[in-house]
């Protein structure tokens, strides 16, 4: 089933949005290189793709490990690379009254610096591709504040800014670079420390569902985000670059 003329790299592919993006790109016909720090989750992603008839390879990778990133960038696994989806990310609360500079730095390092550094390192490969495309996964938190989210918000706002700057810089090479800004998506990231899903809490349901703050009235699925990534990364996207595609059930339209 796989059309090996297209090779995709997906970070964060062991879970949630990254897993769904990897599965979708494989279903679209790409050979997908799935990278993530979580080896067990990666195996599950690869098995699911292969069961569905797709082609995938696993790379256990901490995106903040520059040497490991350099090895991946130089590896034959990425020959023919033309699609990049940077989905790896973390959330750490950084509230004023329990502020941790280490957590703050880690959030910026994973979500912003490492994503940009990886994309920059991949540019020589993308320049050689026929229809090179990249997406970063930012967040509506780049435009909307919640208590305790300053590190996460800065990381995602920075990622949006970097996406636009790289889109402008790489347009002459024919490399289209966009960002997807998900809203509330049902993934393991929505599971709180006590094991409850944030989207099942009374507070969430009251504000976002019963009082209509979330127009579509439900969290999104990783597959709905993956559909947006699939389009932005496909040759069907010929003229969109430097754009932030919000996938949030209408939430930011209410602001
Ligand atoms: P997720 O299910 O937690 O998946 C994130 C994946 O990234 C996990 O497999 C995680 O591995 C991996 N990862 C974390 N740090 C890494 C590192 N240093 N190197 C390599 N892999 C690493 O979360 P998700 O919801 O799918 O999130 C995917 C992206 O969407 C993130 O960038 C997130 O900020 C963004 N986003 C999510 C939502 C949402 O509502 N879910 C909304 C807006 C934006 P571990 O499990 O080992 O940490």
UniProtKB/TrEMBL annotation:
Pfam families: adh_short_C2. Residues 6-183 form the Ketoreductase domain. SUPFAM superfamilies: NAD(P)-binding Rossmann-fold domains. PANTHER family: 3-OXOACYL-(ACYL-CARRIER-PROTEIN) REDUCTASE (PTHR42879), 3-OXOACYL-[ACYL-CARRIER-PROTEIN] REDUCTASE FABG (PTHR42879:SF2). Belongs to the short-chain dehydrogenases/reductases (SDR) family. This is SDR family NAD(P)-dependent oxidoreductase.
């Amino acid at each position: 089933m796989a059309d090996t003329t297209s090779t995709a790299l997906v970070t964060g592919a062991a879970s949630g949005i990254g897993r769904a993006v990897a599965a979708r790109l494989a279903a679209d016909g790409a050979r997908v290189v799935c990278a993530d720090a979580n080896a067990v989750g990666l195996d599950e992603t690869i098995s699911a793709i292969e069961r569905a008839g797709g082609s995938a390879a696993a790379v256990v990778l901490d995106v903040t490990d520059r040497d490991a990133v350099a090895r991946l960038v130089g590896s034959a696994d990425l020959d023919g690379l033309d699609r990049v989806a940077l989905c790896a990310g973390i959330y750490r609360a950084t509230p004023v009254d329990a502020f941790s500079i280490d957590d703050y730095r880690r959030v910026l390092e994973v979500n912003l610096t490492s994503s940009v550094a990886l994309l920059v390192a991949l540019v020589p490969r993308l320049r050689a591709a026929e229809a090179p495309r990249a997406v970063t996964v930012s967040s509506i938190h780049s435009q909307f504040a919640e208590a305790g989210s300053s590190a996460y918000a800065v990381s995602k706002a920075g990622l949006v800014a970097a996406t636009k700057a790289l889109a402008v810089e790489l347009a002459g090479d024919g490399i289209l670079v966009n960002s997807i800004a998900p809203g509330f998506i049902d993934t393991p990231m929505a599971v709180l420390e006590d094991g409850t899903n944030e989207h099942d809490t009374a507070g969430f349901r009251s504000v976002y569902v019963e009082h209509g703050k979330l127009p579509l009235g439900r969290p999104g699925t990783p597959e709905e985000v993956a559909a947006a990534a699939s389009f932005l990364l496909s040759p069907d996207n010929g003229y969109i670059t430097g754009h932030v595609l919000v996938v949030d059930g209408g939430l930011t339209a209410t602001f």
